[in-house]
């Protein structure tokens, strides 16, 4: 019985030991699982935290790299600018200087023109007064000549030693007046005959020699005209009109420097001689001295501000100098004074064409052709300044109308 109890006790103890061991193993196993789970959870958190740190580190690195690259690029550009700045600055300064020099030149022209426009009224009054004085002097001189002629005619009329003088003759002055009437009537050859008759009677008539030269110039007999002017100047060296008219004939013969000398002689005698200043400018333009020509036209306009030919000629010289804006203003002044001045309208067309203002150029050409169709159309066909408008439909229509 004791043995059985002992065996039972032993079995029970073993059972308890086995159960306890099983339970203990179960508990350990659960613990290990829980511990593994805890460790796994902690590891995942650490992994997530590690990944987050790496992601943050990568973003920071990217931002730093981007900032560094951007700063490096800016620095490179800055260094390039610093490298080329002196050369760029020098080029820019040179460009500004060139532009400023051109602007100064244009401004000087404008100031010069403004100055002459401002004082022109006073000088015009002085010029008119001088013209009146000159006319009085001329009338006085003519009166003296007439007195001399009357005295001579009286001697001829009553001379018994020369019977031919008894024939009634017109006085030399009357022949001169007759020649003037023929000239105004366009009867040029008859005018020459009348002047020749007057000079046969009294060769010392400077005005008749001058007027004879004018008619010969109209007949395009320029050499004979110059000879006639020279005779007038032999009689009266301070004859400003004869100097001017002589210069005009020399222009026709293309003796430009000699013509300039004649005009300057006329200006020396009569400083406010607008025609001589204008004609001097024409000669200077013929030899391509356009700036000097503009100054000469300025003098003419200071004396006579409503001188349409001088405005037109001044505009042509300014156009040759490339000062188109002021040139167009000159042509505008010319046509305001003389609305039917077809040459000014034609030159205005040239200027607008050179500027590339096609529509305005064609309007000016249309006006010029309406005033003098034949001449303008022929000139326009070969005008080198019309290259910018030549292919325009209206241009072709205008020159073929």
Unreliable residue stretches = 14-20, 139-169
Helix content: over 70%
- Which secondary-structure class do the elements indicate? mainly alpha
- Strand segment tally: 0
Rg over C-alpha atoms, rounded to the nearest angstrom:
53 Å
What's the SSE pattern? HHHHHHHHHHHHHHH
3D shape: elongated
Q: Whole-Å distance between the termini? A: 158 Å
Number of helices: 15
Mean pLDDT, to the nearest integer, reads 78
Question: How large a portion of the residues is in β-strands, by DSSP E?
Answer: under 5%
Biggest pleated sheet = none
Describe this structure in words.
This protein has 401 residues and is mainly alpha-helical. The chain is built from 15 helices and no strands. It has helices at 2-157, 172-184, 188-201, 206-218, 222-235, 240-252, 256-269, 274-286, 290-303, 308-320, 324-337, 342-355, 358-371, 373-381, 393-400. Helix 2 (172-184) runs parallel beside helix 4 (206-218), helix 7 (256-269) packs antiparallel against helix 8 (274-286) and helix 13 runs parallel beside helix 15. It is elongated, with a radius of gyration of 53 Å. Residues 14-20 and 139-169 have low confidence and may be disordered.
Write the layout of secondary structure elements.
Elements: H1 2-157, H2 172-184, H3 188-201, H4 206-218, H5 222-235, H6 240-252, H7 256-269, H8 274-286, H9 290-303, H10 308-320, H11 324-337, H12 342-355, H13 358-371, H14 373-381, H15 393-400
Helix pairs in contact: 1-9, 2-3, 2-4, 3-4, 4-5, 4-6, 5-6, 6-7, 6-8, 7-8, 8-9, 8-10, 9-10, 10-11, 10-12, 11-12, 12-13, 13-14, 13-15
């Amino acid at each position: 019985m004791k043995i059985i109890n002992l065996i039972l006790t032993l079995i029970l103890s073993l059972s308890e030991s086995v159960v306890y061991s099983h339970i203990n193993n179960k508990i350990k196993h659960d613990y290990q699982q829980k511990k593994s789970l805890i460790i796994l959870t902690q590891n995942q958190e650490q992994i997530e935290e590690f990944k987050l740190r790496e992601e943050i580190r990568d973003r920071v690195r990217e931002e730093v790299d981007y900032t560094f690259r951007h700063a490096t690029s800016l620095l490179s550009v800055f260094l390039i600018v610093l490298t080329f700045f002196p050369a760029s600055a020098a080029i820019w300064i040179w460009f500004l200087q060139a532009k400023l020099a051109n602007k100064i030149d244009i401004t000087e022209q404008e100031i010069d023109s403004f100055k002459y426009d401002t004082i022109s009224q006073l000088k015009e009054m002085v010029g008119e007064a001088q013209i009146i004085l000159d006319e009085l002097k001329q009338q006085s001189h003519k009166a003296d000549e007439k007195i001399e002629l009357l005295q001579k005619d009286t001697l001829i009329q009553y001379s018994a030693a020369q019977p031919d003088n008894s024939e009634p003759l017109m006085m030399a002055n009357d022949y001169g007046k007759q020649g003037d009437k023929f000239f105004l009537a366009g009867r040029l050859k008859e005018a020459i005959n009348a002047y020749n008759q007057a000079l046969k009677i009294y060769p010392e008539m400077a005005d008749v020699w001058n007027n004879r030269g004018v008619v010969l110039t109209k007949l395009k007999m320029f050499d004979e005209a110059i000879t006639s002017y020279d005779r007038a100047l032999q009689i009266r060296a301070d004859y400003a009109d004869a100097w001017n008219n002589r210069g005009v004939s020399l222009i026709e013969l293309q003796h430009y420097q000699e013509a300039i000398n004649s005009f300057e002689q006329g200006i020396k005698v009569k400083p406010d001689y607008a025609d001589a200043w204008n004609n001097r400018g024409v000669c200077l333009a013929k030899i391509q001295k356009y700036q000097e020509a503009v100054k000469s036209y300025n003098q003419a306009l200071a004396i006579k501000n409503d001188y349409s030919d001088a405005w037109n000629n001044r505009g042509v010289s300014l156009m040759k100098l490339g000062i188109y804006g002021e040139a167009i203003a000159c042509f505008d002044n010319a046509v305001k004074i003389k609305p039917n001045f077809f040459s000014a309208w034609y030159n205005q067309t040239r200027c607008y064409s050179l500027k590339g203002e096609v529509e305005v150029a064609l309007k000016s050409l249309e006006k010029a052709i309406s005033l003098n169709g034949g001449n303008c159309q022929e000139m326009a066909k070969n005008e080198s300044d019309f290259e910018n408008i030549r292919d325009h439909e209206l241009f072709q229509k205008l020159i073929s109308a």
